[in-house]
Design goal:
Order of helices and strands: EEHEHEHEHEHHEHEHEE
Structural class: alpha/beta
Bound molecules: iron/sulfur cluster
Distance between the termini: 51 Å
Number of strands: 10
CATH architecture: Alpha-Beta Barrel
Helix content: 25-40%
């Protein structure tokens, strides 16, 4: 079997907090988020035999406990993901998947086959605002986004509901970029839409410090990333609707925000 493969990080502690993982970045994505840092993975193909990745898993095995499939959007390659997740499981490893949430059917199949331990699903904008979702996934800036933002929001919502209806762990996360998706109102609308969809305050939700230096949309590259303090302020807004809120920054890594102690 061939995989449209990007690259590997053999040992990572930041792609699944609390675990040491080998991370595979797969190519292709239906979205064109203007801030995307991995845009080199979106356009060209690089077909590699799956045995190459299996060997990498085997050689990382003494040092890592988990395999993370990221991208790009890994769930575009269902066969490859099923194969790699099954291989990881046979080798006694946990499996985590980073996804934009656009493939709920694949998520359901992976859960039914007991192949995944944790999904990390992007909530790129409020799940009930197609104008903002459209902006966040690049429909307004790139002509090669062939998805309807309304349908994307429905798919992401369904993906979240499927994972919550299973025993698989879930983290939701939003990458925040000043002047794109990064204001108090933006975060309030996103957190409220998560609560409205799920009816739960306890879902882990991470606000990620987006980097703009290598953004896909050139006009974003000069925008100053949000600081850790600004993200903490935004976390206080998310906490109006959600209780397990994290901020993730280059300066301080992954922090659970507890406003009672600040
Ligand atoms: S940031 Fe957006 S465009 Fe880039 S890989 Fe993720 S979902 Fe795709």
């Amino acid at each position: 079997m061939k995989i449209n493969y990007g690259n590997t990080v053999p040992i990572s502690t930041v792609d699944w907090h609390g675990k040491v993982s080998i991370v595979f970045f797969l190519r292709g994505c239906p979205y064109r988020c203007p801030y995307c840092q991995n845009h080199a993975l979106l356009f060209e193909k690089n077909m590699v035999d799956v045995s190459v990745l299996e060997e990498e898993i085997k050689s990382s095995r003494p040092f890592v406990s988990s395999v993370v499939l990221s991208g790009g959007e890994p769930l575009m390659q269902k066969g490859a993901v099923v194969h790699l997740a099954g291989f990881a499981k046979k080798n006694g490893m946990l499996v985590g998947i980073h996804t934009c949430g656009h493939y709920p059917g694949v998520i359901e199949e992976l859960i039914d086959a007991d192949l995944v331990d944790k999904f990390f699903i992007d909530v790129k904008a409020p799940l009930d605002n197609s104008r903002m979702y459209s902006k966040a996934i690049g429909c307004q800036d790139f002509s090669d986004v062939h998805v309807d933002p309304k349908i994307s929001m429905e798919k992401v919502s369904r993906s979240i509901s499927i994972v919550l209806g299973s025993r698989v762990e879930l983290e939701l996360r939003t990458t925040l970029i000043r002047d794109l998706i990064g204001s108090d109102d933006d975060v309030r609308l996103i957190a409220r839409s998560i609560y409205d969809l799920t009816g739960r305050r306890d879902i882990p939700y991470a606000l990620q410090q987006g980097s703009t230096a290598d953004a896909m949309l050139g006009s974003l590259r000069k925008i100053r990333p949000l600081s850790r303090d600004e993200l903490v302020d935004l976390a206080s807004v998310a906490c109006e609707f959600l209780d397990n809120v994290y901020v993730r920054t280059r300066e301080k890594g992954n922090e659970k925000i507890n406003f009672e102690s600040i």
